[in-house]
């Protein structure tokens, strides 16, 4: 591979599963542009990426190990492959932040021209600047969500100018304690921020946050994980292949959520009542005790529904592979940002059911409803999932009189096209700005 620049970028991402892919995909794109990339993460996380570094990237993408302290609250197996239960996120956050001195040593050793770090590790900016290394944050959620919180921090007392984005009562109460964290993330040194998105999705929010936050926001043009087919995945693909076009709903709530027993029941009965074919990824904590699918699902559900009607995949599914076949008619999702982008890239209508009210999910849901590519499933007034709503919403999208499904599909495909049109231009700008930042720093150092 011919290298067009000799710029070295060190990329340092947060450890949650949803952050692996966007960093790696961006690394590949930058490497295509001639940058040399050091991906810094824990050995277990790096081992997931190592398998994906093809010959093409073997000279330009390098792995740099970062070690977490051994906190007793963070058992070693939770560092592994398929995401992390949400209740351990704060411990993980603490563990990474404790590793600041180690990260200082890594940067000092590697001396990259620029650091690209996760917005969720805001302290990395300070470590880099103490070594005169310029840095850029990489945001892995919608700028719609960042501008919503940025607004309340930067413009207190002023009404938020986009009525499509709002929090419901039951969401707002839970969100409050997290304000402090949001403030820190949007804090000082807001010069340039990359985001895994496109101006086609939340461009007006990018303009707004740029204006109030004095930040230059650069979308990378939506990067999602590659499709990888292996043999176990084939069986489900064959099953999907025998289904009619737009006949099946894919149901998954991301890498971090475990539904409560009550929620599991409501989703199960809702799917059953909808009478739509389904593939449901069921996750439950396994470490604490031995449990099986029979223990977590309503009695008789498997016998009545599994076979031709529906499929359950335990714990982890090849999501992008499943989203591709034409038999998938909608994705019932928690609106994690990666899942949202994957839906759009595969032209799949979205049924949004945000799960973690203190995360980006509720605002992501409002954003994609505003874009016309999603409907949001109603919860009861107290925020509980109800089987009747589950069944009705799915039925509406699949068989509704007003052709809701058709309309969503048309719009999601339109959005995908608009993203595609902007992609090259957006990436070119990212590359140009990265080079400029490095050059500016070099001449400052030379002076
Ligand atoms: N994912 C997957 N299989 C699963 C669950 C999740 O491949 O069974 C992938 C999904 O395709 C996405 C990521 O994990 O790329 C989840 O990220 P997202 O932002 O949607 O949600 P989070 O897990 O962060 O809540």
TrEMBL record:
Pfam families (UniProt xref): Glyco_transf_N, UDPGT
Tagged with keyword Amino-acid biosynthesis: no
A Gene Ontology biological process term: glycoside biosynthetic process
Entry keyword set: Glycosyltransferase, Transferase
Keyword Metal-binding tagged: no
Residues covered by the Glycosyltransferase N-terminal domain: 6-211
Protein name in the entry: Glycosyltransferase N-terminal domain-containing protein
Species, as recorded: Solanum pinnatisectum
């Amino acid at each position: 591979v011919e290298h067009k620049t000799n710029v070295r970028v060190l990329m340092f991402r947060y450890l949650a599963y949803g952050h692996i892919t966007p960093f790696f995909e961006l690394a590949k794109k930058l490497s295509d542009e001639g940058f040399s990339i050091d991906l810094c993460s824990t050995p277990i996380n790096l081992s997931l990426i190592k398998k994906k570094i093809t010959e093409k990237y073997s000279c330009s993408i390098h792995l740099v190990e970062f070690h977490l302290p051994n906190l007793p609250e963070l058992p070693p197996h939770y560092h592994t492959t398929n995401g992390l239960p949400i209740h351990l996120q704060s411990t993980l956050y603490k563990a990474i932040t404790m590793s600041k001195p180690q990260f200082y040593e890594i940067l000092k050793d590697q001396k990259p021209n620029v650091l690209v770090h996760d917005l969720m590790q805001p302290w990395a900016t300070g470590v880099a600047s103490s070594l005169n290394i310029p840095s850029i944050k990489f945001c892995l959620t919608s700028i719609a969500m960042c501008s919503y919180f940025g607004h309340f921090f930067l413009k207190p007392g002023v009404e938020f100018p986009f009525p499509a984005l709002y929090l419901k009562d039951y969401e707002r109460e839970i969100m409050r304690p997290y304000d402090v964290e949001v403030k820190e993330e949007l804090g000082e040194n807001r010069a340039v921020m990359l985001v895994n998105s496109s101006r086609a999705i939340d461009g007006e929010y990018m303009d707004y946050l740029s204006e109030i936050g004095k930040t230059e926001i650069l979308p990378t043009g939506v990067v999602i994980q590659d499709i990888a087919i292996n043999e176990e995945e084939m069986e489900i693909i064959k099953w999907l292949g025998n289904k009619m076009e737009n006949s099946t709903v894919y149901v998954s709530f991301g890498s971090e959520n475990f539904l409560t027993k009550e929620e599991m029941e409501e989703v199960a009965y809702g799917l059953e009542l909808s009478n739509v074919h389904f593939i449901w990824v069921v996750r439950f904590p396994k470490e604490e005790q031995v449990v099986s699918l029979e223990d977590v699902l309503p009695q008789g559900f498997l016998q009545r529904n599994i076979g031709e009607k529906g499929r359950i995949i335990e714990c982890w599914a090849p999501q992008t592979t499943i989203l591709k076949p034409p038999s998938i008619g909608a994705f019932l999702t928690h609106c994690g940002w990666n899942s949202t982008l994957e839906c759009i890239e595969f032209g799949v209508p979205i049924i949004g059911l945000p799960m973690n009210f203190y995360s980006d999910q509720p605002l992501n849901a409002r954003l994609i409803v505003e874009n016309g590519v999603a409907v949001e499933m109603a919860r009861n007034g107290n925020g509980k999932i109800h089987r009747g709503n589950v069944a009705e919403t799915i039925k509406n999208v699949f068989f509704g009189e007003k052709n809701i499904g058709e309309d969503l599909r048309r719009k999601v495909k339109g959005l995908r096209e608009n993203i595609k049109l902007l992609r090259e231009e957006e990436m070119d700008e990212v590359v140009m700005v990265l080079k400029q930042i490095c050059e500016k720093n070099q001449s400052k150092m030379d002076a």
